[in-house]
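In the design runs reported in the main text, the only information available to the sequence generator was the tokenized backbone. The following block is the verbatim input for one such run; it is reproduced so that readers can re-run the procedure and compare outputs position by position.
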């Protein structure tokens, strides 16, 4: 994943605010703990999907990740996943999958994970803001995505260090010209400009700057099988799902 690097002026993170702030220059690996709402879904200590912390007890992630409350756990507030121990994992007690979910074709592919207890918000862990359900998406927004997916097509292992990339949003019309009618009004597309989400990045947040904070505009849903950087990445459009999120979380998110 082609990415960016920030300077290292540090202050406590607020909702929707990265811990590392300042100018962006070319790079690949994200600075340590720079996206404090980024979540790694883990199976026996191995990353397999991403997610975003949207409330103290709630994580939003793709339904196809098939998170299990019995065998899986979560890591929140860390950039480096090497030497993850069972004691590092945060358990979830329930999974709520969108009732309209279908995998082929991909439809309403979101799940909410309810943590066993609320996480502590602090210097390294914070929440990401959600857009309003009627918010229009500005295609000129400054947007980023992040995750621990593979960094080269057909590479066998996920990255141990979180990677970040700038995302150029593209119109639904342009996206349909590439992917066809699989693109719905519940999707938003980005990329196709030298960076691409890849295996293991599913669930990574599409976070766009809005009034000085980042909003969770999308969640990585699907894209090119071989991670072609010229192919648009398809995200679940979060604004469409605000009513469902509010109903499941009891208004916490």
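Verbatim output:
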């Amino acid at each position: 994943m082609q990415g960016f690097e920030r300077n290292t002026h540090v202050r406590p993170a607020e909702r929707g605010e990265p811990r590392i702030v300042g100018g962006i220059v070319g790079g690949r690996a994200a600075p340590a703990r720079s996206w404090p709402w980024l979540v790694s879904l883990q199976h026996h200590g191995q990353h397999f999907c991403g997610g975003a912390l949207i409330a103290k007890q709630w994580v939003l992630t793709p339904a196809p990740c098939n998170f299990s409350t019995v065998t899986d756990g979560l890591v929140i507030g860390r950039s480096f996943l090497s030497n993850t121990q069972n004691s590092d994992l945060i358990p979830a007690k329930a999974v709520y999958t969108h009732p309209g979910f279908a995998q082929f074709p991909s439809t309403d592919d979101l799940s909410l994970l309810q943590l066993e207890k609320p996480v502590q918000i602090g210097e390294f862990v914070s929440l990401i803001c959600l857009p309003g359900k009627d918010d229009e998406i500005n295609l000129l927004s400054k947007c980023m995505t992040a995750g621990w997916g593979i960094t080269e097509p057909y590479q066998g292992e996920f990255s141990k260090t979180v990677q970040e990339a700038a995302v150029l949003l593209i119109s639904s019309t342009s996206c349909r010209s590439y992917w066809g009618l699989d693109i719905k009004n519940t999707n938003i597309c980005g990329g196709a400009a030298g960076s691409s989400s890849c295996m293991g990045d599913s669930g990574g947040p599409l976070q766009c700057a809005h009034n000085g904070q980042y909003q969770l505009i999308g969640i990585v849903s699907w894209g090119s099988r071989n991670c072609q950087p010229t192919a648009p990445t398809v995200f679940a459009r979060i604004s469409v799902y605000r009513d469902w999120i509010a109903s499941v979380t009891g208004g916490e998110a």
